[in-house]
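Researcher: For the record, we're logging two predictions in this thread. I'll number them. Prediction 1 follows.
Model: Prediction 1, sequence and structure:
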Amino acid sequence: MGTDTGADTDAGAGADTGTGADIPAEPAERARVAAFRSRIGVTSLIDVHTHFMPERLLAAVWAYFDTAGPLIGRPWPIGYREDEERRLALLRGFGVRAFTSMLYPHKPGMARSLNDWSADFAARTPDCLHTATFHAEPGAADDVRRALDQGARVFKSHVQVGDYDPRDPLLDPVWGQLADAGVPVVTHCGSGPVPATHTGPGPIGAVLARHPRLRLVVAHLGMPEYADFLDLAERYPGVLLDTTMVFTGFVEATAPFPQAELPRLADLGDRVLLGTDFPNIPYAYAHALEALEERTGLGPAWLRAVCHDNAARLFGLRR
């Protein structure tokens, strides 16, 4: 991706330039999010793509973003660089009733300790959907079984950062376990913001061919291979997509969602989930919601399903 800041001049969606310097003061932003919820007819949101992880690891992730590393490719200032309690308070203030702690290993040997941290975080944070992860390594199947036994309700697979092939035979029992358990796995398998060795629809498509019942949540709508991942969702009923960062000015500047694909996205409205990447976003949380509303034009019923009802059904959350 280039160095364009993704500035946007549309009303509402253009309230943030994507530089990270335009995050509104909390009361003003809470009012914007509340107004969005009112317009689409929900009292709360469910965000399936938020990041909570051990503080030292999160600091390292932020440092990587600060240097615009090779997996980023452009300036990416962190919008919500706050301590854990403050970040929780912000999400709750936006009316987010359930969220995830997306965490991921960048090398083998990390997954089990991350899963233990996440299990503790979920135990002390009742509105967090207990999240776990894995890497392609000999103990992957054992790590996933242990996390499931601990109560994990959703997994994160970061094919780009982990730099592993999802078709690796070491992961075959992992995908099988997750398919059998019906537990969703949010997977960064698209080639945005920059391609990696095993990103794109081909590798993960081969996994789905072998495990067609897998509940795979394609992060970022598969950016930038949007059409290809819509194909996979149409082919496999267990495939869902999350909206993380898509339609924002920051992403539209370099990887715009094709307008011609909006009817297909509308037809898949019961399998699209709200995701944001909070806190690691270079614009206001409210902007992600407003951009989703304005750039899709798919209306309140579609947005209600995406921002609350689909995830509530997926995770068995009562109203």
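Researcher: Logged. Prediction 2.
Model: Prediction 2, sequence and structure:
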Amino acid sequence: MQENTIATPPAAGSHAHLSGRVLGLANLGLMVLDANGRVVMWNQWLASHSGLSAHRVQGCELFELFPELRGQRLEQAVQSAMQSKLPQQLSPALNRSPFPLYPTGTWGGERVEQAVSVTPFTEGKERFCLIEVSDISTTVGRERQLRGQAEALRAQSYVDGLTGIANRRHFDVALDRELRRAQRNNGQLSLLLMDIDSFKAYNDHFGHQQGDACLTLVAEAFAAMLQRPADLAARYGGEEFAAVLPDTGPEQAALHAEAIRARIAALAITHAPAVARPHVTMSIGVATYDKNSLNDAATMLAAADSCLYAAKHAGRDCVIIHRPAENAA
């Protein structure tokens, strides 16, 4: 007949030993404060990251041990937890490194970034407070890295790979945004469409590599002419460029366009021998927002494009401005 066996619990001393092992192995900081804020427990993780042994801090008042914490969010959290008997969580966004804790063995330099929680508890009739400190430096670093990569990818998706100025996608977004702003505020907005004259002949004569160099040089010169933060210089496609000019009426836009045309001509980039002009030039069409006619992206683009087409037929190297009142008449 099989006898039933009853497992006997280990002695209390071995439990204490086990608790000590667990505290030593814990990969986070664990400290316990008594009702007077004195340290009654301080685990190995905290000793390794602070340079202060448990023996040294035992019985010390936490905020005398770390005066910089006095009056800060941590002291408020401890007081609140002890009074309300409710746990408190410190947001890393408000203070990323409240405790002077450093990578193991350094005890100086840049602090580890921390998540801190405060939990009140009672043992018998005595009140205590458990403070847990986690090293979130790796997590925060990874988040920053991922955020940086996302921002870089987003930036790349809005930048023309050849010229380094805004691409067509960025242009479309900016034009739509500024149109809505002009409509809300009954403001002004102008659009420039421009094209390098006889660029095919340039490419055919000098080759595509030199053609790319020409596009880049023109883009840099054109973008440098737009000085206001909200102005946008973009590569519209091929040898075509565009500019979005917020808070800009037709007269001011015409002056901008003429200055850009003159700047490109002044680069004195040698053109193909078969072209009438000896240097690379640019034709520009200008359209300005009008709430009654040119009041969306499609109509503004069509108006600017028609002016650009007219500039080509007018002999190139010139600026043509769309004038709604004259067209309506």
